[in-house]
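Request from the bench team (R.T.):
"We need a structural guess for the complex before ordering more adenosine-5'-triphosphate. Sequence and SMILES attached. Just send the tokens back."

Command: build protein-adenosine-5'-triphosphate structure.
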Amino acid sequence: MKEKYAILIVDDEKLQRESLAGFLKKSGYQTYTAAGVDQAISIVSEKQIEIIFSDFMMGEKSGFDLLNEIRQLNPEISVIIMTAFGTIQDAVAAMKAGAFDYLTKPIDLDEVEILIQRALELRHLTRENKELRERLRDKHKLSGIITSSSVMAETLSLAARAANSRASVLIQGESGTGKELIARAIHQTSPRADKPMVTINCAAIPENLLESELFGHEKGSFTGAVQQKSGRVEEADGGTLFLDEAGDIPLSVQVKLLRFLQFGEFQRVGGNTVHKVDVRLISATNRDLPTMIKENTFREDFYYRLNVINITVPPLRQRKEDIPLLIDFFIQKYARENQKAVNRLTSGALDVLMKYDFPGNVRELENIIERSVVLSREELIARTDLPLTISSAINGRGAGQIPIDYYSGSLNDRVAAFERDLIERALKEHNFNQSRAAEALGLSERNLRYKLQKYGMK
Ligand SMILES: Nc1ncnc2c1ncn2[C@@H]1O[C@H](COP(=O)(O)OP(=O)(O)OP(=O)(O)O)[C@@H](O)[C@H]1O
Ligand SMILES: [Mg+2]
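Reply to R.T.: structure attached below.
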């Protein structure tokens, strides 16, 4: 089996390279020899080489040159540097330059065999890892996103295609629709997945500090800048910068970001050196940027830079077929987290949720399920385990009347359900005239209005 591994020995002394090659050949490896860096490079570009043993000092070019060229050509090759006894500094320098390991001459052959085994093992692991990642990427599946709806499938297919490019992506959608989740998935399936994704919540950072957070500052550039600080864009070098709540970026910072997007260049606050980084930008917002442009609170040129690829995430009420799937997913998640035996919803409870509008989208559904799992006493989540505001919201809209259940749930919930029912009846009896309904209930009109609001009734 060993002969499928090829080892290249580079040494300007013929005797040295031939004796090591002879030993390795006898051990069963396929071997090549080269007398210098240039010859070594030409062999590497033609043959599939696994491991290189290279002398350090070889005429004009050194082991450093070899390491540099190999890194460009094929970084998967493990290079082992052989140095003369007593030149440990060379060995350290070679390790820093990316050598796999080093040997001191005279060479200990047992050590050679151990190093080869280690190098092959590492190679095997990195290969496996790479294949796994490629397979995941190829599936064009964005991880952790639960959906079965066709509108979302389109959105995700666009996201998967966007992932392969470095074009700026703007993700728009209502609050809680999964914008951040999609941004993360784009980064994770992009060729930049190995590098960081740096997230900045532009709404959470005070206006006067956002520029410094992004680009860093020089010492003394403003009160409080006691030390030089590098910016988050530098952290994101080679990776992705995610600007969350991008609609909240103040105009002054939009100008700076625009320049950054055009040229990849920036200056720290209070500094005049120009820095350059390679960053892919994803931004997200639930605000209506075109309207903000009309109102002069968002720059049009900046908008076009952000919005090269536009991904609009539909609200949950426009993809109700996702509700049951998400419910299952969240029940499992929170049952595990809370060590509860809950595993499903009664059909009554599902019915209520299917009729609800979810102004807070997936996040609201997730919160509802978490709360219900925590509060449930049985394996089933019943309608009465759901927050009362939901049934009220549905009834208030007059859609799908749900009979009120006074006989289960907490006392507070039951009393509230009863109260809500009585108010509704009184209103109907009096043709929705609030002052007469209030009189019939023995309430002040103001108190009735308060209760209507509390129960989300119109
Ligand atoms: N399709 C989905 N599958 C599984 N979980 C989801 C899905 N969509 C959203 N979530 C979950 O819902 C929550 C809200 O999602 P996220 O934070 O991505 O929303 P957002 O659009 O960024 O919201 P906001 O505008 O409020 O910042 C998160 O916990 C996320 O994991
Ligand atoms: Mg978000």
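Two things stood out. The chain has three domains: 2-134, 150-314, 317-454. Residues 397-403 have pLDDT under 50 and may be disordered.
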